[in-house]
């Protein structure tokens, strides 16, 4: 179903995405936003203008021509930030606030967990951890962590 | 290091400092810098961006190349952020030259960097000397708290980050025990005496055995006088122990009950003083459990378990002394199991504490399910989801069971092990005792006395082992209580407050920005409201109207900029004193359980009946109150008389009128009622508004036509200011909003995007 979309998407010299609809109206600084970033990241992506108004809803990225898809994926990549915790090195204490040293898919980092309520269960095996600055860290499957990490995490569940 | 004259540079790590110093030319000074912690692909990587008086420098930690840009016209440094990640961008007039990513922890540093960059660029391009800016308030870069003179580290942040609780948290309860020092000392002495008294009877078994029973078996007659002497000694000691035991238990229970009560009220008082932010992030069920159940648990621990434990320790110490004085060798053998048990206790201690904390947490979760569902019962029933909610509760309970099971697995092993050790210990004493008797080293009486002593001794050890879990539970509870007590309000009291007895009511917002979590809600708002002026705040939901009001009330503190009242920063005023000048009427007025008179007089409890009635009259509430069966004494609030939305609103208006505030805030005061009631309320409000600085938020623009000025907000920014007719003639944002409302079109859409207004207007019929 890869027919030509009824809009144009380019990136300008200022690094902003520019959207041009079928009537030729231009919007600069367009951003793609996933509708279901956790439960279904690859379907349902909205392009919104700089005022947060929806311009177009893309059901499935794969339906787009590859150059548009690249632009959108690039932009998503530079906007989305939900490091996935792969390993817990150590936690400073089992009571909050505590500093966690972790390995994520985006490198090693340490952050401060403000309260136990910031560790939230998403499904039976996945967790979302919010640090003191409001950044979300994801644990996709706590059973796939190594033994030590599981043990550390277990203190907070 | 004179090249670094920005004081914060001292916090920069040595490696960066050296790296930067190697790049600087003569006469080049570092003005500001930030450490970035992400690379462009959003992987964690360290980097640095430095502003000097000549150029901008940047480097990633892993690369060796410094990127530099000398100042020139048109160079622009800006930042934007999304979901906790900031983006710092450098533009010239044609394109983006570079960008850097960082986590928002360094947000205020970035703003300083941009400010400094702009100043340096301007002064470099015009070759003029820079004015030095002295900040009136030094703020903590992390939490925005106002720092005192010469304070470098923020006391708020420091406190929040360095809490490391353990069993020692219990010692912190001393703060609450201190007022009862004297009684505690008496209690302790009583404990000593009563314990000593209980140790007399086993001691008497020794002469009873050696001087009476053994001689009798060897053919001597029983010495009745001696028996009577020993037995009366036994009885006397027991009676004395009974009396002393009663006295100390009563005394200490009395004290601990008072400590518990103090703890509870202190925690509650502290809780009430915390900012709204705290309540936003906590669940009611959890907070209620902490103040109710946890304090009770601590109380029980103090009055019962700790007391028992203290008695046990004293008893063991005394027993050990007695045993050693009778026979050191046998005493040594008797005491051998003690370290083993101590070791065992230590072994299980950690696992149990974690387990019990889990139990507590899961218990709070069970409570939270209740607290979530019971207030939402109408929704649950309306959507027929009773089964699902029941399943949710069952699941929470199931988890509760699971975790309890796991804890009990360790716990259940613990007590029998101690008992077994006790038995083994007794066996050792028997063996060693018999061997010593056979060697004529001790008498039968000594062995009997030893067995009598250590019988008790081991029983106490067994019950002492229980103290581990109880202490852990109490420590966990104490920690949860002190979590609240240690939480410093995010709207901190100023260290040197300014007292304003009367205010004129001039409010000034200067470059106000506010960020909640990672969302930036208000940006760079400037507004001066003169005394007595009525300001209407207009905009869509989510445009920042309520936020602005919350900031003015100081429910939250601004992230940047400041709010001044009569020229004083509101952060320099005592919070409660400041709020006394503000009358607040909310969309959903909250009535407390009590009479109508009490509710009206809520902000001024000592108001006379005349004052209450005249406030009610002015609020147009007088007549409907008289229609109620008990007039002003009718009970309202939860469990009280049902009042309509308009009636409750008028009571809350009367409440605001009574405290006669200089500043009045109406947050959608008329939105939840129908138009006829609105007219009534509007009349009441007109009385209220007269002569006061008023800030009103209303969804219906028609209610704001009286306002001297309307402030139109969009996305946290002020887009237009002016009175109704000015704004209408300007045909801008307000005009569109007003037109849309007049035509009864959904405001949410038409205001955002004027170009779809035509289609939207067509849809209404």
Description:
The complex is a heterodimer of chains A (157) and B (765). Chain A is mainly beta. In chain A, 14% of the residues lie in helices and 38% in strands. Chain A contains two helices and twelve strands, in the order ββββββαββββββα. Chain A starts with 7 loop residues before the first strand and ends with a helix. The model of chain A has no long low-confidence stretch (mean pLDDT 82). Chain B is α+β, with helices and mostly antiparallel strands. Chain B folds into five domains: 7-134, Roll (PH-domain like); 138-164, no CATH class; 177-486, Up-down Bundle (ABC transporter transmembrane region fold); 516-581 and 663-744, Rossmann fold; 589-660, Rossmann fold (3-Layer(aba) Sandwich). Chain B has 25 helices and 21 strands. Chain B has a six-stranded mixed sheet, sandwiched between helices. A four-stranded antiparallel sheet of chain B has the order 1-2-3-4, with helices on one face. The model of chain B is unreliable at 1-9, 130-165 and 745-765 (pLDDT under 50). Classes of the chains: A mainly beta (157), B alpha+beta (765).
């Amino acid at each position: 179903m890869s027919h030509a979309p009824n809009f144009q998407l380019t990136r300008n010299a200022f690094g902003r995405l520019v959207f041009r609809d079928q009537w030729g109206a231009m919007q600069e600084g367009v951003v793609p936003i996933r509708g279901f970033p956790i439960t279904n990241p690859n379907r349902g992506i909205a392009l919104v203008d700089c005022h947060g108004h929806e311009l177009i809803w893309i059901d499935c990225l794969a339906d787009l021509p590859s150059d548009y898809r690249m632009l959108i994926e690039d932009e998503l990549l530079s906007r989305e930030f939900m490091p996935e915790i792969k390993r817990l090195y150590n936690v400073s204490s089992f009571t909050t606030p505590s500093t966690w040293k972790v390995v994520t898919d985006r490198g090693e980092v340490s952050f401060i967990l403000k309260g136990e309520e910031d560790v939230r269960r998403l499904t039976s095996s996945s967790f979302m951890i919010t640090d003191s600055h409001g950044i979300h860290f994801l644990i996709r499957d706590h059973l796939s962590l190594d033994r030590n990490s599981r043990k550390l995490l277990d203190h907070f569940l | 290091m004179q090249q670094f004259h920005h004081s914060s540079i001292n916090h920069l790590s040595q490696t960066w400092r050296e790296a930067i110093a190697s790049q600087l030319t003569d006469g080049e000074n570092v003005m500001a810098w930030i450490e970035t912690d992400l690379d462009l692909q959003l992987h964690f990587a360290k980097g640095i961006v430095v502003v000097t008086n000549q150029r901008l420098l940047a480097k990633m930690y892993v690369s060796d190349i410094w990127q530099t840009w000398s100042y020139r016209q048109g160079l622009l440094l800006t930042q934007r952020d999304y979901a906790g990640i900031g983006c710092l961008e450098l533009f010239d007039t044609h394109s983006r030259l570079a960008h850097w990513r960082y986590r928002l922890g360094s947000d205020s540093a970035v703003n300083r960097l941009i400010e400094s960059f702009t100043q340096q660029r301007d002064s470099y391009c015009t070759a003029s000397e820079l004015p030095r800016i002295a900040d009136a308030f030094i703020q903590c870069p992390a939490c925005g708290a106002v720092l005192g003179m010469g304070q470098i580290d923020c006391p708020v942040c420091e406190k929040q980050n360095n809490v490391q609780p353990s069993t020692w948290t219990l010692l912190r309860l001393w703060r609450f025990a201190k007022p009862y020092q004297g009684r505690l000392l008496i209690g302790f002495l009583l404990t000593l005496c009563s314990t000593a008294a209980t140790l007399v009877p086993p001691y008497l078994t020794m002469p009873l055995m050696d001087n009476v029973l053994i001689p009798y078996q060897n053919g001597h007659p029983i010495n009745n006088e001696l028996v009577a002497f020993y037995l009366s000694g036994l009885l006397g000691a027991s009676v004395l122990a009974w009396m002393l035991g009663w006295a100390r238990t009563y005394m200490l229970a009395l004290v601990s009950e008072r400590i518990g009560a103090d703890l509870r009220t202190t925690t509650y008082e502290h809780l009430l003083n915390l900012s709204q932010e705290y309540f936003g992030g906590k669940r009611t069920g959890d907070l209620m459990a902490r103040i109710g159940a946890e304090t009770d648990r601590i109380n029980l621990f103090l009055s019962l378990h700790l007391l028992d434990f203290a008695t046990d320790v004293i008893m063991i110490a005394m027993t050990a002394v007695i045993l050693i004085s009778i026979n050191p060798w046998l005493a040594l053998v008797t005491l051998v199991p003690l370290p083993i048990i101590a070791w065992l206790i230590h072994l299980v201690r950690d696992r149990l504490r974690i387990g019990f904390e889990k139990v507590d947490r899961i218990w709070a979760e069970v409570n939270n399910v209740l607290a979530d569902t019971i207030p939402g019962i109408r929704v649950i029933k309306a959507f027929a989801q009773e089964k699902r909610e029941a399943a949710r509760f069952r699941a929470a309970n199931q988890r509760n069971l699971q975790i309890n099971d796991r804890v009990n697995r360790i716990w259940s092993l613990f007590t029998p092990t101690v008992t077994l050790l006790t038995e083994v210990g007794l066996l050792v004493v028997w063996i060693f005792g018999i061997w010593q008797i056979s060697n004529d080293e001790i008498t039968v009486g000594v062995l009997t006395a030893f067995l009598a002593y250590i019988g008790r001794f081991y029983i106490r050890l067994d019950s002492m082992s229980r103290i581990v879990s109880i202490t852990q539970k109490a420590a966990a509870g104490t920690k949860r209580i002190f979590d609240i007590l240690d939480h410093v309000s995010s709207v901190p009291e100023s260290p040197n407050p300014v007292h304003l007895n009367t205010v004129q009511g001039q409010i000034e917002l200067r470059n106000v920005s506010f960020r909640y979590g990672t969302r930036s809600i208000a940006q760079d708002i400037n507004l001066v409201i003169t005394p007595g002026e009525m300001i209407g705040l207009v905009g869509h939901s989510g445009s920042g109207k309520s936020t602005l009001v919350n900031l003015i009330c100081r429910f939250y503190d601004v992230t940047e900029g400041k709010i001044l009242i009569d020229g004083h920063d509101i952060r320099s005023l005592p919070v409660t004193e400041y709020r006394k000048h503000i009358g607040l009427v909310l969309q959903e007025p909250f009535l407390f359980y009590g009479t109508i008179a009490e509710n009206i007089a809520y902000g001024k409890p000592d108001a006379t009946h005349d004052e209450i009635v005249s406030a009610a009259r002015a609020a147009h509430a007088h007549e409907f109150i008289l229609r109620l069966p008990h007039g002003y004494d009718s009970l309202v609030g939860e469990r009280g008389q049902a009042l309509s939305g308009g009636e409750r609103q008028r009571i809350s208006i009367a409440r605001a009128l009574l405290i006669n505030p200089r500043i009045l805030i109406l947050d959608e005061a008329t939105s939840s009622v129908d138009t006829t009631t609105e007219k009534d309320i509007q009349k009441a409000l007109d009385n209220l508004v007269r002569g006061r600085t008023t800030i009103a938020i209303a969804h219906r623009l028609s209610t704001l036509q009286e306002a001297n000025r309307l402030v139109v907000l969009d996305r946290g920014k002020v887009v237009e200011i002016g009175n109704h007719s000015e704004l209408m003639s300007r045909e801008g944002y307000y005009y569109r909003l007003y037109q849309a409302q007049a035509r009864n079109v959904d405001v949410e859409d038409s205001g955002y995007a004027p170009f779809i207004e035509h289609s939207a207007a067509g849809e209404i019929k």
